[in-house]
Design a protein that fits this description.
Layout (H helix, E strand, L loop, with lengths): L5 E10 L8 E9 L3 E6 L5 H9 L6 E6 L5 E4 L12 H6 L9 H11 L15 H13 L5 E5 L7 H13 L3 E5 L3 H5 L4 E5 L6 E5 L2 H36 L5 H18 L25 E12 L2 E14 L3 E5 L6 H10 L5 E3 L5 E4 L12 H6 L7 H10 L4 H5 L7 H15 L3 E5 L10 H10 L3 E5 L3 H4 L6 E4 L4
Parallel strand pairs: 3-7, 3-8, 5-6, 6-7, 12-16, 12-17, 14-15, 15-16
Antiparallel strand pairs: 1-2, 1-4, 8-9, 10-11, 10-13
Helix pairs in contact: 3-4, 7-8, 11-13
């Protein structure tokens, strides 16, 4: 469908939580009906803030956010709200409407078909895997049939089949859609344009065209800005050198120095605010627990979910996990991968045994292992037998977690920052066994090669679940357990 009238407009929008640290500065852009727009930018650039300003959850400090009157908006969040976990499917979807819907079961079935999920209406949300919950979050937005659909990292937790299904749906979707995602291949299939947010300049720039073309255009513009600034810097330095020389002379030379100072000030004012590429985390090592030897863990049987029922499966060949072992657990969404990892981490899986005194580092895809009421600093401090302030701050800095971020409660951090916080915790913890459930979720794609290298070089044992196949390919997997083939 061809683009229609403007449905969203930002006019000179300024937004900040702290006036000394603006998130948006004079943001100007518009979105037309029936278009599909990607929002891209560094972590902390304000992508989720844009969504909250559109929905009205936040109000601008200055400027105007206009949405066509009568327009309905729905947002598919990244993570299921913990308050929904004990609700049944029917109770969950009923919350999407202000009034009672008499044909709700019919609507639920239709929307679950769209997201390729079967779910009994009386089943509780907590019983679904992370991938299934991601589909429920999307279905919750779709069932409202909104004029504007907002998707925040919709491919997180989805397996390849789920991503393919979502892509097909979005390509056929006839209304307005704004998407935040780091999945370039996914975005390139349906994007009409890009809103680029720069955390350095706090500006928003709008581009038309497919995702890869826009990335090329932005990179070329960055290079032009860097070249122009480099030329200006050389000119400024040359004039400063002359100012220093002529300022000590008398008469005309001193007047010339004054003139050159004015020229330096003018030149410095014309310096372009360069857009900054995403900063990447530093290379890091996850130290392993000392004196590891022999079998760290063994798995003789596992529970899998078949038609929403747990079934015990005996392994023909028990899995023995030693130091440097890297076990990949595969299977479709809903088969029980996350359930198995949680049981292993908690020591409650009857068919598995982890050696005594092994320290376990556990990356949960929903970060439920973190206490959201604690500060980020406290979350790091508790990983050390003897907390050392300097070590905590230095480790945090490796993962772009500033001293200011460390003072914030974990619940206020972005999902990407929570993920990086988990890796910083592992560095301080020095575990003997890492259990990783979708460790790439919410993480900026620029960080992933560095994380993959750290996991590949990890001297302890690793048990991994991930649908990010390019990420897995960078790790030397030694064993694979496919729950879908048991």
């Amino acid at each position: 469908m061809n683009p229609g009238n403007v449905i969203i407009r930002f006019n000179e929008v300024v937004f900040h939580y702290d006036k000394n640290k603006p998130i948006l500065a004079e943001a100007n852009f518009s979105v037309r009906e029936n278009t599909k727009i990607t929002i891209m930018g560094q972590n902390g650039a304000g992508k989720s803030t844009i969504f909250k300003l559109i929905t009205g959850e936040l109000k601008p400090n200055e400027g105007i956010v206009s949405v066509t009157p009568g327009t309905t908006i729905a947002i598919a969040l990244q993570v299921m709200n913990r308050g929904n976990m004990e609700k049944t499917i029917e109770e969950y979807f009923s919350d999407a409407f202000d009034k009672k819907i008499y044909d709700l079961p019919k609507k639920i079935k239709k929307v679950l078909d769209i997201v390729h999920l079967e779910a009994p209406l009386d089943r509780k949300i907590v019983k679904f895997s992370g991938g299934q919950q991601a589909r429920l979050l999307l279905a919750y937005a779709l069932i409202q049939e909104p004029d504007i659909l907002l998707l925040d990292e919709p491919t997180n937790n989805l397996d390849a089949e789920g991503i393919k299904h979502l892509t097909r749906f979005l390509m056929e979707y006839t209304k307005t859609c704004l998407v935040i995602s780091h999945d370039a291949d996914f975005l390139n299939t349906f994007t009409d344009g890009v809103l680029y947010l720069d955390s350095y300049t706090q500006k928003v720039e709008q581009y038309l065209g497919n995702y890869y073309d826009v990335l090329t255009e932005i990179e070329a513009q960055m290079e032009r800005e860097r070249a122009k600034n480099a030329q200006l810097k050389r000119s400024i330095q040359d004039r400063k050198d002359k100012v220093n020389f002529f300022a000590n002379k008398g008469g005309k030379m001193r007047r010339l120095a004054s003139k050159l100072r004015d020229q330096v000030e003018d030149a410095e004012e014309t310096m372009i605010d360069e857009r900054q590429e995403d900063k990447t985390i530093n290379n890091f090592i996850i130290p392993s627990q000392a004196d590891l030897a022999g079998v760290i863990a063994q798995i003789k049987s596992v529970g899998v979910m078949i038609n929403h029922k747990a079934v015990k499966k005996i392994l023909t060949n028990p899995i023995l996990i030693h130091t440097k072992s890297k076990l990949l657990i595969k299977g479709p969404n809903g088969i029980g991968k996350s359930t198995l990892l949680k049981a292993l981490a908690e020591g409650s899986e009857p068919g598995a045994q982890i050696s005594k005194d092994i320290k376990i580092g556990y990356y949960q895809q929903d970060f439920s292992g973190l206490d959201f009421n604690k500060t980020a600093y406290q979350a790091l401090e508790e990983m050390m037998e003897i907390p050392w302030n300097q070590t905590i701050y230095a480790t945090a800095a490796q993962f772009l977690l500033s001293s200011e971020i460390l003072r914030n409660k974990i619940g206020s951090l972005s999902e990407g920052q929570k993920g990086l916080l988990c890796y910083a915790r592992f560095v301080l913890q020095k575990p003997g066994l890492l259990i990783m459930d979708e460790p790439t979720n919410h993480i900026n794609f620029r960080h992933l090669p560095i994380i993959a290298e750290a996991l590949n070089n990890y001297e302890g044992a690793l048990i991994l679940v991930s649908h990010a196949y390019e990420f897995i390919d960078q790790i030397d997997i030694t064993q694979t357990l496919d729950l879908g083939t048991l």
